[in-house]
Amino acid sequence: MPIYEYKCKKCGNRFEHLARRLAETAPDCPKCGTPKPVKQLSTFSARVAVAAPASPCASGRCPGNASARSSCASGACPFSKS
User: Fold this and answer.
1) What percent of the chain has pLDDT over 70?
2) 80 half-sphere exposure, CB direction, 13 A CA radius
3) Both 57 and 36 in a single domain?
4) Do 26 and 59 have their domain in common?
5) How do residues 36-51 score in pLDDT, each as one tens digit?
6) In a domain, 17, yes or no
7) Residue 26 predicted with pLDDT over 70
8) Are residues 67 and 77 in contact, defined by beta-carbon separation less than 8 angstroms?
9) Is residue 10 part of a domain?
10) What is the C-alpha to C-alpha distance for residues 44 and 79, in angstroms, rounded to an integer?
11) Are residues 59 and 31 in the same domain?
12) Half-sphere exposure in the Cβ direction for 38 (13 Å, CA)
């Protein structure tokens, strides 16, 4: 269900409306009751989930000292959660 943004022609009030159907008409202004508000252009936001690496070393950023880094390179990471 899309959320549309509107602006009242009379009082300038900006408001949102959750449309339950595509053919649904714009509601009257909730502030002054004027019919047929003007639909506004709006942006949207998208969020993408990214899986975290199994250990800090899997990302190539070993947090340990030089000996820990060498063991990470060999596959025996001391910081691994396994």
Assistant:
1) 61
2) 14
3) no
4) no
5) 999 998 777 778 877 7
6) yes
7) yes
8) no
9) yes
10) 39
11) no
12) 9
Q: Which amino acid is at 78?
A: P
pLDDT of res. 57: 61
Can you say whether residue 32 is alpha, beta or left, with left for phi > 0 and alpha for psi between -120 and 50 degrees? alpha
Average pLDDT of the residues in 11-39:
94
Q: For tokens 């595509």, what's the residue?
A: 22
What six digits make up the tokens of 8? 């009242």
59 in the Ramachandran plot: left (φ > 0), alpha (ψ -120 to 50) or beta?
alpha
Residue type, 48: V
Residue 28 belongs to domain spanning:
1-40
The number of domains in the chain is: 2
Pairing of strands 38-39, 14-18: unpaired
Which residue type, as a one-letter code, is found at position 74?
S
Query: Is 46 part of any domain?
Result: no
Label residue 53 by pLDDT band (50, 70, 90).
low
Q: What pLDDT is attached to residue 58?
A: 58
- DSSP assigned state of 59: G
